[in-house]
């Protein structure tokens, strides 16, 4: 931006009159010859394209002359910048001395004495961090911008330090404001020096006309401060009290305009008020923050407040929502004890973000727990979830893994609906993926899921996780799974320690762009005293009704060897007798009685080849059968039944062991 063309030579109306007179004197006169123009319109003629010799059409007498185009030649820098509804300050020289402040700036921060260094007279620029920026602009010659700088309420009243002499305070702001400042390099013309007496006469003429001194300078005979910018403004002043004809004014301008010295480099500071935009952005951020906090609260309330701890597994899980710029997703996990020592482990991820995804997640998690109570195979649980997900929201899909651990089989049986593979680490540190085929995500409908299995013996560990743990925008997701395998192979400690190590090793921070759920389970290898608390015993039930007394004798001997109290032994023998009798009457071979103890419970289970599950019913007084399951349900802590994978069923009951 160059202010040379805006250099003031005459004040106000006389300056514009002189400029118009000068342009009129220099404008060339149009040729009046009849044939002087080569274009017919320039000669007042019209063309005769047909060549019929017809006279040209006469121009209408009432045609309006072309409108004159306004020019900016008579607009001074003061007129232009003084009307801008923004903060404007012009400084010059390496010390950034004040050359000009517009009315908006003065109204906010107060007036300042021209020629004073900005570091002393404009403390607000120092507090806003603009002085170093102005140095950079002056050195590089390139504009610089800082956004949304806060101006406190009260304006200059809040700025420390002494005020410059002769500087009047401004009213300031009634509330905090924000401004975006742009510092642009400019060049100003340094005018020739004029005599002090002439300058005083010029200022007196201006003061006599409107009663106010020009640019705030005192009307006396004191010499000017010698600043180039102030001098250029003052030297063009003429006496307003004297009538000056146009021609004389033109000559005066030409006479006063002497050879200019080297241009003076300065900086134009322009501050645009962006308070409304900043406050709107803050309100939007506050609203988004409240929505995110509500979604996080909903998400955490729908997750398990405390994981169930199975007898044979050690389990830990962690959930970390995405960073502040990321909306909460629909990741979830759960651990469900199914009875007879079996445990279901679930992890899933609802596609999408926000409260809606969290709400869908909560419905799916509740449904999983309900379906798990039916003790169905994993693929059947996912089939039921698939239909439910389509009913909840036809446009929403979710991935899920449902796995069941059976300590009697030392295997992890699972089904996957479009989820990432389970990783299993053997006791020797080898990590394997559960590579069985997976079905489509939940909510797609019309697909059949399948069940796979992977060994999980004593000393082995497994990890279930969501895509936020391994997915990165610049890498393939299976590269992340491979990285997780390497980290999981070397992770040791308790399940909770392993969760934390996996999170840290894969670079998950509080600013991560996706939420993360991790579920780690361990099947510990028990030795010493712990091994004495876990026992198994099984009996094949061969023959007919004579198998019942053998089963009672077997149960009595095993429970006695496990040193259970007499009352618990009697209840265990009674429950085993009723379950065996029910299987002999309603089931088919092969039949087996299994007794199992853990550190917290006694489990009695009978399996046979029939798939019809028993139901508890009220027996009539005259009925001779139908009371066995009712007796078991009454004396045991819990009971249940399920279908076995190879066909048949298993009926079981549990007794809680006394503490100590």
Automatic annotation (TrEMBL):
Span list, region Disordered: 1-70, 141-176, 196-230
Ranges of residues in domain PPM-type phosphatase: 313-523
Swiss-Prot/TrEMBL keywords: Hydrolase
The UniProt record lists the keyword Hydrolase: yes
Ranges of compositional bias, category Low complexity: 39-70, 152-162
Keyword Transmembrane part of the UniProt annotation: no
Alphabetized SMART domains for the sequence: PP2C_SIG (SM00331)
Basic residues bias locations: 141-150
UniProt xrefs under InterPro entries: Bact_Sigma-Reg, HATPase_C_sf, HATPase_dom, PPM-type-like_dom_sf, PPM-type_phosphatase-like_dom
Protein name per the record: PPM-type phosphatase domain-containing protein
Species the sequence originates in: Streptomyces javensis
């Amino acid at each position: 931006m160059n202010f040379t063309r805006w250099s003031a030579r005459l004040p106000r109306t006389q300056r514009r009159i002189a400029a118009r007179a000068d342009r009129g004197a220099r404008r060339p006169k149009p040729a009046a010859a009849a044939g002087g123009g080569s274009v017919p319109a320039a000669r007042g003629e019209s063309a005769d394209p047909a060549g019929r010799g017809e006279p040209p059409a006469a121009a209408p007498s009432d045609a309006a002359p072309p409108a004159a185009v306004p020019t900016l030649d008579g607009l001074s820098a003061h007129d232009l910048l003084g009307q801008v509804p923004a903060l404007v300050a012009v400084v010059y020289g390496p010390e950034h001395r004040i050359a000009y402040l517009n009315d908006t700036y003065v109204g906010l921060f107060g007036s300042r004495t021209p020629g004073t260094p900005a570091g002393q007279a404009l403390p607000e620029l120092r507090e806003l961090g603009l002085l170093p920026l102005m140095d950079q602009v002056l050195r590089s010659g390139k504009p610089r911008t800082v956004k949304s700088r806060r101006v406190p309420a009260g304006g200059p009243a809040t700025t420390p330090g002494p005020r410059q002499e002769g500087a009047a305070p401004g009213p300031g702001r009634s509330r905090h404001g924000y401004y975006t400042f742009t510092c642009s390099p400019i060049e100003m013309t340094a005018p020739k020096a004029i005599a002090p007496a002439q300058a005083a006469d010029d200022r007196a003429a201006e003061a006599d006309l409107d009663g106010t001194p020009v640019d705030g300078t005192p009307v006396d005979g004191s010499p000017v401060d010698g600043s180039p910018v102030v001098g250029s403004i003052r030297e063009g002043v003429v006496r307003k009290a004297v009538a000056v004809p146009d021609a004389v004014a033109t000559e005066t301008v030409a006479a006063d305009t002497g050879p200019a010295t080297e241009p003076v480099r300065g900086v134009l500071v322009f501050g645009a008020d962006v308070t409304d935009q900043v406050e709107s952005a803050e309100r939007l951020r506050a609203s988004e923050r409240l929505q995110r906090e509500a979604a996080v609260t909903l998400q955490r309330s729908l997750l398990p407040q405390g994981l169930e701890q199975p007898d044979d597994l050690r389990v830990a899980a962690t959930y970390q929502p995405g960073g502040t710029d990321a909306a909460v997703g629909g990741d979830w996990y759960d651990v469900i004890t199914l009875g007879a020592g079996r445990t279901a482990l679930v992890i899933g991820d609802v596609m999408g973000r926000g409260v809606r995804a969290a709400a869908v997640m909560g419905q799916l998690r509740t449904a999983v727990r309900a379906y798990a109570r039916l003790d169905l195979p994993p693929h059947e649980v996912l089939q039921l979830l698939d239909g439910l997900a389509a009913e909840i929201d036809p446009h929403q899909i979710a991935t899920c893994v449902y796995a069941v651990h059976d300590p009697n089989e030392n295997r992890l049986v699972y089904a996957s609906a479009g989820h990432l593979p389970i990783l299993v680490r053997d006791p020797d540190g080898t990590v394997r993926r559960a590579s069985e085929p997976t079905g489509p995500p939940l909510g797609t409908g019309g697909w059949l899921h399948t069940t796979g299995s992977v060994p999980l013996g004593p000393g082995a560990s497994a990890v279930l996780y969501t895509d936020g743990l391994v997915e990165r925008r610049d890498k393939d997701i299976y590269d992340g799974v491979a990285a997780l395998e390497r980290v999981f192979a070397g992770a040791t400690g308790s399940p909770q320690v392993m969760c934390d190590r996996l999170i840290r090793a894969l670079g998950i921070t509080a600013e991560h762009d996706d939420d993360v759920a991790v579920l780690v389970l361990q099947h510990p290898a028990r030795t010493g005293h712990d091994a004495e608390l876990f026992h198994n015993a099984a009996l094949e039930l061969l023959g007919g009704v004579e198998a019942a007394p053998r089963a009672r004798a077997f149960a009595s001997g095993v429970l006695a060897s496990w040193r259970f109290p007499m009352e618990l032994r009697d209840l265990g023998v009674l429950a085993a007798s009723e379950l065996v009798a029910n299987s002999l009457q309603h089931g088919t071979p092969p039949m087996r009685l299994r007794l199992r103890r853990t550190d917290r419970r006694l489990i009695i289970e009978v399996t046979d080849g029939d798939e019809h599950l028993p139901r508890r019913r009220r027996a009539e007084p005259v009925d001779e059968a139908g009371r066995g399951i009712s007796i078991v349900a009454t004396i045991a802590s819990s009971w249940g039944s399920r279908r076995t994978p190879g066909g048949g069923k298993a009926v079981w009951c549990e007794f809680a062991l006394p503490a100590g």
